[in-house]
Structures are given as C-alpha cells and as structure tokens.
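Class prep. Sample record?

___
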Amino acid sequence: MSITPLIDAVRDAVTLCRTLQAQAVQGINKFSQAKGSSEPVTIADYGAQALIGRALMQHFPDDGVISEESGQQFASLVSPERQQAVIAALSDVLGLPVSVDEVIEWLDFGKERRARRVWVIDPIDGTRGFIAGRHYAICVGLLVDGHPSAGVIGAPMYADGAGAIFYGDEGGLHRLNLATGHAERVHVSTRQDPSEWVAVQSYEDAVRGQRDAVRVLTQAGWIDRVPVRDIDSMEKYALVACGDADMMIRLPQAHRSAPHMIWDHAAGIALVLAGGGTATDFDGSPLDFTQGKVLPNQGMIVSSGVMHAELVEAARTVGGVKPIIV
C-alpha cells in the first residue's frame, strides 16, 4: 500500500492552512461552535479534513475513518458565508470548482464504517497555536487492526517556517522539506549522553504549569542536563521520530476531565514507531487504540528508546504508581 495520496493531500492542506493563518484576521478564519469543547474550530479545520477525505474516498474507498469534524456540523452549524469561505479556499488549492455537497461528502467519508483499516484524522492539531501564529500540525494516522501502522504529519512551521511533511509506515520514516522539495530517510535519535538529549512537551501544559517532563527528569536526575522545549501540536511526536528530540512525557493530569482522543495521538505514534522509537503509557503499559475514539491510557512516554525504561521508572514514581512485582 502506498500512502502517497495522503502525502499529496496533506501538502495541499498545508498550502491552504498557511494561506488562512497568514491572513491573521480571526473574524474571517475563526468561529466557535458547540462540539464538546470550548476550542475554536477554523475554516482550516474543515478545509484540511475535506482535502484528506477526498483523497481517501478516491484511493481507499473501502476503509473507515475517525475524525473530528463532520459534514452534519458543516451543513447545520456553519453559516453560508463561512461555507463559501471553505469552498473558496478548497477551490484555490485544487484548481477546480467545489460544491457544498462535495465538501459534506468528503468530510463524512468512511465515518461509522466498520473496517480492518481505519484512518484517523486531526485536520488542525494545535488550534490555539494556529490562531496565535505558533506551531500546528495536519495529521493522518492509519490503524490496522487497532495498531498504528502508518502516519502523515504536515508541520508548516517546522524549521523556522520552512515546513515539512513527515510520513512513515512499517518500512521506515521520511521527512519532506517543503522549502526544497527534498525528502530524506530519518529515524529516532541514537544519542546516549543525557547532556545531548532534548525533551518536548505541550505548550499549553507549560502555560498551565503542568511541566511533566521537568518532574520526571528531576526524578531521574537529568533535569540539569536536558532542556525542555514547549511546542504546540502533534509536531512533538514528529520531532522525536526524526531525532530532533529524544522524549515526550505526559503524566495523568488532575485538571483534565476530558479523555484522550485517538486523533490527538494516532498519527504521531505511528511516526515514532516508523522511526524506530518506543511509546507506552506512563507506567510502561501498551497504548490501546482498539477502543474507538477514546484512548483509554492515562498518559504516555514517547522516546527514542535509549532511556525509555529509566523514564518509565521515574514517571511511575512521580505519578504515584507502585512498581509491579513479578
């Protein structure tokens, strides 16, 4: 199976999202609606998901899809003016006319379909970063029998805005430089010395003071040697997957009432695995993508694998989990 059609769709989505973000006019490219959270939904959300749904419908017509946005939302909750803004953005990128009915069809493609292969879409991961002009990502993951088997992440702000698309499957991981068009094989870091490691964590968690990486690194005795970079979106996973960073840590969060959703993690975990890395719950147990939209795990540790056991031991202690005695 080739994931090239998804790479092309994500590239188109990057083009669309860059244009909308550059407008920097929130009254045009942002609006709110009730969808189970208070986060804003952008025209870029619908446009990016429509592009990905279109590619899936054309190339993988029998597969299932799990995604955030829906055609019903677009039809009933989006004003006609903003529907036309989505259509105009899509028409510009595709170079052909687009109708409201087509957008609805693309948004709803594959939903609720029972299939062995399921694509998981997060059209704009890091919405707050997108609005604030920071990092965000366009993410597509493939689950085969509940296993993250392939992923594509578009990171428009990667490398000081040059942008990249990271894509991988069980055959390996690649990084496409959007500025040069050059693609290269990449993999997780092999750095052994803690003084050379880099940790990444959520920008929003840092704002809330939930600095999980700092707590775990302190417990492990590495805090003075490992810098922690705060960054929006699933781009964090791509950074670990390609060796730019060495670890990402998320502990159970007392302030968090909503469960982890698989579209926030599937593509990223697939890339880390394709790059040769390791991903588990914070207590070392496997991540479970077999429960539908919800990821039942309490937290996660994603790493190059070099120090994973030590990170799990430290995270278990900080998280208050007693060691398992076999």
